[in-house]
Amino acid sequence: MSVVDVGDAVELTFTTTPGATVTVSWYDPDGSTVLDSVAVPESGTTPGAHQYTFAPASEGVWEARFHASGTVNAVERYFVRARSLSGPPPLATVGEVAELFGTMTPAQETLTAALLRRASEMLRARFPDLTDRVADGSIPADAPAMAVINMVLRVLRNPDGLRAETTGPFSRTYDTTVAAGLLVISDSEMALMAPAGTGEALQVGTVMAHPGLADVTWGDSPAHRFRDLQRVRDRYGRWW
After folding, report:
1. What total number of domains does the chain contain?
2. Does any domain span residue 45?
3. pLDDT tens, the chain, 240 aa long
4. 3-class state of residue 86 by DSSP
5. Is residue 220 part of a domain?
6. Strand pairing partners for 27?
7. In three state form, how does the secondary structure of 168-201 look?
């Protein structure tokens, strides 16, 4: 399935036996026929390839149905999801991700743009008051961008969801709970979204530890107290 913005053109290629007669029908998201059995000429450079360009006019899943006849009888269905241009923009840009990732191929740039859109949708769904938090200063203005950039970078750096990889003498391991090749809002991103002073960040599984020795409960008898002193010495390397 292809994904395009409403109104953008998408070219689909149907390949069959050279010399076949090919037609295409185009259906909107409601199943209504927009194009009915339109002839699709064969490519002059690639035998058997038949290309047609569509432009979805509304949001939803559109269908192109190619039919080949002649030496072969075949029907193939293609689906294109058109997304609305309305709504808020992504919370970060491809350029911001590239600053940390490095030089990208055109395919990586396209993937990054799609990941940023979805990561932004996920973050807004998890925090419906995100705009208010930024507006009232309870979280830094750059925090949402930092969160989605981190989410996208984890996918780009480990797109196959590997647990570990080795290159020559070097090896690395991945925490697949947050780097499984899928967009995940990690505890770090949750903490970025927590208003300062609310303690909300503690709800994402953070354990707070304070320095110092543990309290000691002493026995009542001299023998018990001596035993307890020995335990303190064994644990901390010195007498109390």
Report:
1. 2
2. yes
3. 778 888 888 999 999 989 899 999 999 999 999 999 999 999 999 999 999 999 999 999 999 999 998 766 788 999 999 988 777 889 999 999 999 999 999 889 988 988 999 999 999 999 999 999 999 999 999 999 999 999 999 888 877 665 666 666 666 665 655 556 688 898 889 999 987 655 554 443 333 333 444 444 444 555 555 555 555 455 555 444
4. coil
5. no
6. 33, 63
7. CCEEEECCCCCCCCCCCCCHHHHHHCCCCCCCHH
